[in-house]
Amino acid sequence: MAAITASMVAELRGKTDAPMMECKKALTEADGDMAKAEELLRVKLGTKAGKAASRVTAEGVVTCFIDGTVGALLEVNCETDFVTKNDSFLAMANTAAALIAKHNPADIAALSALPCSQDGYGPTLEDVRKGLIGKIGENMTFRRFKRFASGAKLASYLHGSRIGVVIEFEGDDTAAKDVAMHVAAMKPVALSSADVPADLVERERSVAAAKAAEAAAEAIAAGKPVQSDEIVAKRIEGGVQKYLKEVSLFNQPFVKNDKQTVEQMLKATGTTVKGFTLYVVGEGIEKRVDDFAAEVAAQVAAAKGAA
């Protein structure tokens, strides 16, 4: 029996993109014959992991893990909604969230390198991911995560598996849970108006200015008087302030009682929200849209050209 070295395993893994343990098993079965081991892996896993790496993963799940005042929120992506219901995929996502809370990895690469075994794959989370790609046949990626360990209490809410919220707070547990549900529904971008990112404020100011310019042009075309620069400036600023109230958590009408703001509800329950994190699956990822009719037409045209 040939000795299977770490360098041999690494070489085979580089050629096939297969999980480390699968490479070792194949080399053992092939008695150290690299070509035969590669063939064995092609038969068992195909080239799924390598080919899948270039495919867009805009579906997926958000999962959460909380243990006392330490927790994690994680988004794991895949290619189709079908895989989001796969038990192995969900197990990997939940395990990864727990690993983040317990080990505090610096980034996705550090998370992927953490020890993990599942479904016969391992010894790292990355090996599990690649193994499941080979098993299920879809690309899967760990997209983003946040770990919570400030000492504040934590409340979470998952809306299905596509929206996840974690609230950092002090005070009433029920109120905090209600705020988490509110955030999932209303999707604020900051706690207060002062916390709204400057680029979003400037974008809204530009929109308001463009609307004012359009209104002025319409007034001139209709032969009506144009508002003074001072009035226009006030209208623009009024639009910005309206926007800030709409997107800041504390100023939003509370979803369970729109007669009071979230801030008023929190004050009434003696609760202080120190921060929130909201993840929506696929947010910001450009999804591929296949035009089947156009694709068929292109193939027909290509066939006619070849003829």
Summarize the structure.
By secondary structure, the protein is of the alpha+beta class. It has helices at about 5-15, 20-30, 35-45, 50, 85-105, 110, 125-135, 175-185, 200-220, 230-245, 260-270, 290-305, and strands at about 60-65, 70-80, 140-150, 155-160, 165-170, 255, 255-260, 270-280.
What does this structure look like?
- By secondary structure, the chain is an alpha+beta fold.
- It has helices at 6-16, 20-29, 34-45, 48-52, 87-103, 108-112, 125-136, 173-186, 198-221, 229-247, 262-268, 292-306, and strands spanning 59-67, 70-78, 140-148, 153-159, 163-170, 253-254, 257-261, 272-280.
- The strands form 3 sheets. It has a 3-stranded antiparallel sheet. The protein has a 3-stranded antiparallel sheet with strand order 4-5-8. It has a two-stranded antiparallel sheet with strand order 6-7.
- A hairpin with a 2-residue loop joins strand 6 and strand 7.
- Helix 1 packs across helix 2, helix 1 (6-16) crosses helix 3 and helix 9 packs across helix 10.
- The chain starts with 5 loop residues before the first helix and ends with a helix.
- Residues 46-52 and 288-292 have low confidence and may be disordered.
If you average the pLDDT, what whole number results?
A: 86
Tertiary shape: elongated
SS content category: alpha+beta
- Beta strand count: 8
Helix content: 40-55%
How many helices does DSSP assign? 12
The arrangement of helices and strands along the chain is HHHHEEHHHEEEHHHEEHEH
Report the oligomer.
single chain
Q: Mind summarizing the main beta sheet?
A: 3 strands, antiparallel
Sheet with most strands: strand arrangement: 1-2-3
Estimated radius of gyration? 27 Å
| Distance between the first and last residues' Cα | 56 Å
User: How much strand content do the residues show?
Assistant: 15-25%
What are the low-pLDDT stretches, counting only 5+ consecutive residues below 50?
A: 46-52, 288-292
